[in-house]
Amino acid sequence: MDTYEPVIDNPYPAPGWSEIERVEYIDPLILRREPKAVQATRRERVDADYIVAAPYTLAYWLDGQRREVTVPSGMLTDLSSSPAFAALLGIRRVGRHLEASIVHDFLYLAWQYVTDGTPREPRDEDRRFSDELMRVAMEHAGVGRVRRNLIYGAVRAFGPGPFKGENPDNFVVLPDD
Fold it and tell me: Cα(171)–Cα(149) distance, rounded to whole angstroms?
C-alpha cells in the first residue's frame, strides 16, 4: 500500500479556549486489518496493524459552540496504546475508550499535516486540547471515572514525546475492494 499525506484543516481551537462540554459520536468507527500492508509501510511500528477504513467524525461543544473533528480514512492505528502494566489494571487496547483513543491518536498527528497556513509545529495547547477531548469523549462513551482518570493521567504523563515527535507515513491509500 502506498502512503499519502492527507489535506487537513486545522482541527485545533485557537488558544484561550475554556471548556469542552460534551461530545457526540457522528459516524461508526470502521477499521480494517491489513497486516502485510501495514508492516510494509511502518516497519518501525508493526503494532499499528489497523487502518481507519472510513472517515470518522466526532462533534464536540467547545465554550458553547458545536465543532467537529474528522479522522481521515487510511490512518494507521494501534487501537488504544497502553503499556503492559495497564493490562494489570484492566485497561486494554479495545473497550469503551476506543473511539476516543482513535480521535486522540489523530490529533496527536494532525499538526504535521495542517495545510491552512498555520505553523506545522507541535504546540502545548494543541496537546492539552487533544487530551481533554479524549477525557470528555471517554466520559460520554460510558468509561467509568477511575478508568477514565487512569487513561487521562497516562496520556498527560507520557504524551509529550509522542505528540512532539514527527511520525511520517501515518496514512495509507486503501485498496479498492
Answer: 30
In the chain, domain spans? 20-164
Residue range 134-151, pLDDT digits in tens: 999 999 999 989 888 888
98: its cell numbers: 476506543
What's the pLDDT tens digit per position in 25-38?
999 999 998 766 55
Backbone angles phi, psi at 33, to 5 degrees: -110, 115
Question: How many angstroms separate the Cα of 144 from the Cα of each of 31, 47, 149?
Answer: 24, 27, 8
- What are the DSSP E strand ranges found in the chain? 20-25, 31-32, 50-52, 56-62, 65-71, 76-77
- Cα radius of gyration rounded to whole Å, the chain: 16
